[in-house]
Specification:
The complex is a heterodimer. Chain A is an alpha+beta fold. Helix content of chain A is 15%, strand content 45%. In chain A, helix 1 runs antiparallel to helix 2 and helix 3 packs antiparallel against helix 4. In chain B, 39% of the residues lie in helices and 12% in strands. The chains are: A alpha+beta, B alpha+beta. Chains A and B meet through helix 2, strand 10 and helix 4 of A and helix 14 and strand 11 of B. Chain B: It is found in: Nucleus.
Chain lengths: 259, 429
């Protein structure tokens, strides 16, 4: 039996919104530590990993490990019925056929309840090791979103180059080229706008912009985004949430000739 | 001489092959493998009652004209041809493992493995076949007229036999050689004979040849190997079941002169004139044999419309055997001559049956076509199931498409060349 209540549906809505553009169907793995999700896109070059810890919910109850196989498009349709500030309660039996969602608008005393049919999904789980990245860049998530959208106009791929001076996003395409450089700065009064670079060695990698713009749909989740890079390993884009919960994306770098 | 051959032996590099095999192959492993032999031994099954003077000679193959090896025992005058028995299933690797028991007579053979799984069988061969090309050659142009042929002596004919390697003449001149006597006897069986004093003169006679070939064929027909029986007799004579409509199985593939089936080569080897043995060249399909099988594709039957009488079946057997002999042992020009000089009524009964059969088959095929076009009659259950499955698949596909987000669809278009799969970085949990 699962019962998990979120104070605002917004968190779950945004997370599902970002994931649904990457994968079609996936399992929400529920256990007593929280709700986790791991899935790859169809091409298997990107991976999304979500962890909503039990602390993010109040209350949270999960007696047994339950895998909720969900079609994310269907889930989005249901979540569309939830207001941003509604409380959201997820409920499921131990061997569930359906996921029960309840939205409560506290101000209006309105309760809506939906049952979403579940499906059996065969998924391979990858073990993701803890990696010491050569460069870790924290920046405003809105800034990252803007950069990816802007560079999309130039090319399908972006080279992210992290040096001790700053981080440079550059794209070269048919119509020309463009680049955006961010320098490290930490305004005391506005911590949300800080750009921080932790660097053990310079690194430059190229990624598919289409995937990155897709990741940026998770922007409402968090004010800050963390990019972690190391040569020849996947980029990690992390949207950190309160209480150690997170939504992470991994993307394989483009190696070899750039077309 | 190291003949051992091993698979994946680390030591047997190409360099080692050339080096004398007594030098140990350079290798770091504990056990060194002796180098592969460049000329691996072959395995033969040879006839028992042969003298020590037995030879393997190269002669022109009477059917194909290529040099072919024959085993000849001069003292008995018997000829043997070699048949290669290949394993029935080519995909499974096989090898020979040889080891010899201790015997006083012969030195013990070194135990060894032979990579090639082939086995060569020496089977009796009628030397008449060797004579046929020279006997009938002269007449091939002048449209078989017995009267125009000359009487020649045995020696004249023997001189005509291609003898490039001098193997043949050597066999004839060996002491105690009975080859010439045997050849003469075989020659006499297909020729008209005129005695002029001590000299015997021969003139080839086609009707005699036909009789001999026919008797060989009927002998073979008594012992058809099961594989041929199935393919050329049972299937060729099977009648379609009327009323029940089934997908017609494809006609049997042309037989690749079934060198592989050992039972075919082994069984009736007792008689000198036996002809079930296949040629070791083994690639030429016996085209004549296939014709009855291909023109009437067999069908699975429960209650066939007509059944072949025992006489018809034995005639079909005879024809199959005859076609086999004609297409594997006789020179091509002679095959036609023999066929045309057969009594015309030999296969009448069989022909009648086959005409009836092909008519029935056309009808069956026509009624099936009607079914497909009209679509009124109940289809095959298989067909129905397939359609059902297809429909289901399409439906599922539709649902899937409807449940795919725009983002996922767009990502499918992204060029991911040069991007490694994540499973290359992260291992499965």
């Amino acid at each position: 039996m699962l019962e998990a209540r979120l104070d605002t549906a917004n968190l779950f809505k945004s997370a599902v919104d970002a994931i649904k553009d990457l994968v079609q169907d996936c399992n929400f793995d529920c256990n007593d530590s929280g709700i986790a999700l791991q899935a790859m896109d169809n091409s298997h070059v990107a991976l999304v990993s979500m962890m909503l810890k039990a602390e993010a919910f109040s209350p949270f109850r999960c007696d047994r490990n339950i895998a909720l196989g969900v079609n994310l498009t269907s889930l989005t349709k249901v979540l569309r019925a939830a207001g941003r500030d509604d409380t959201l309660t997820l409920k499921a039996e131990d061997a569930p056929d359906v996921l029960n969602l309840v939205f409560e608008a506290t101000a209006q005393d309105r309760i809506s309840e939906y049952d979403l049919k579940l499906m059996d999904i065969d998924q391979e789980h990858l073990g993701i090791p803890d990696t010491e990245y050569a460069a870790t860049i924290s920046m405003p998530s809105a800034e990252f979103k803007r950069i990816t959208t802007d560079l999309m106009a130039m090319s399908e791929s972006v080279t992210i180059e992290a040096t001790k001076d700053g981080v440079k996003f550059s794209s070269t395409g048919d119509i020309g080229n463009g680049s955006i450089t961010l320098r490290q700065h930490t305004p005391v009064d506005k911590p949300n706008e800080a750009v921080e670079i932790e660097l053990s060695e310079s690194v430059a990698l190229t990624f598919s912009l289409k995937y990155l713009t897709n990741f940026c749909k998770a922007q409402p989740l968090s004010n800050q985004v963390k990019l972690c890079l190391s040569a020849e390993v996947p980029l990690m884009v992390e949207y950190g949430l309160e209480g150690g919960s997170y939504l992470r994306f991994y993307l394989a770098p483009k190696i070899g000739d750039e077309e | 001489m190291a003949r051992t051959r091993s698979k994946g032996g680390p030591a047997s590099t190409s360099a080692d092959k050339t080096v004398s095999t007594t030098t140990k192959a350079a290798s770091t492993s504990t056990y060194t493998l002796s180098a592969e032999s460049t000329n691996p031994p072959k395995l033969f099954v040879l006839p028992k009652n042969t003298s020590s003077s037995v030879r393997i000679i190269t002669l022109e193959n009477p059917r194909y004209g290529n040099p072919t090896r024959y085993l000849v025992c001069p003292e008995t005058g018997s000829f043997y041809e070699f048949t290669k028995a290949a394993p029935p299933n080519k995909s499974t690797p096989r090898s020979w493992l040889l080891s010899s028991e201790k015997s006083e007579k012969e030195p013990a053979l070194e135990s060894q493995t032979i990579q090639s799984p082939d086995l060569y069988l020496a089977t009796p061969y009628d030397p008449l076949f060797l004579l046929l090309p020279v006997l009938f050659k002269s007449s091939s142009n002048s449209k078989s007229d017995n009267l125009q042929r000359q009487y020649l002596s045995l020696d004249d004919y023997l001189d005509l036999i291609p003898n490039t390697d001098r193997h043949f003449s050597e066999i004839l001149t060996l002491p105690n050689s009975h080859v010439e006597k045997v050849l003469e006897a075989r020659l006499a069986s297909v020729c008209d004979l005129v005695e002029m004093g001590d000299d015997k003169m021969y003139r080839p006679n086609e009707s005699k040849l036909s009789t001999i070939i026919l008797s060989k064929a009927s002998k073979m027909a008594e012992h058809l190997p099961p594989s041929m029986e199935e393919k050329f007799i049972k299937k060729a004579l099977e009648a379609p079941v009327m009323g029940v409509v089934k997908d017609q199985p494809p006609p049997p593939p042309p037989p690749t002169t079934s060198t592989s089936s050992p039972e075919e080569t082994a069984s009736p080897s007792a008689s000198e004139s036996q002809s079930t043995v296949t040629t070791s060249s083994g690639t030429t399909p016996s085209t004549a044999v296939t014709t009855p099988a291909t023109e009437e594709a067999p069908e699975p039957t429960f209650a066939p419309a007509i059944t072949a009488s025992p006489a018809t079946i034995s005639l079909q057997r005879l024809r199959t055997s005859l076609n086999f002999i004609l297409s594997s042992y006789l020179p091509p020009f002679l095959s036609k001559t023999v066929l045309s000089s057969l009594p015309s009524e030999t296969f009448t009964e069989l022909e009648e049956y086959l005409t009836k059969l092909s008519k029935l088959r056309t009808e069956a095929a026509a009624s099936r076509n009607l079914d497909i076009n009209g679509g009124k009659r109940a289809r095959d259950e298989d067909d129905d199931e397939r359609l059902e499955k297809k429909r289901k698949m399409e439906q599922e596909e539709k649902v899937k498409k409807a449940n795919t987000s725009r983002g996922v669809k767009q990502l499918a278009k992204v060029n991911t060349a040069g991007m490694m799969k994540l499973s290359a970085f992260f291992k499965k949990a």
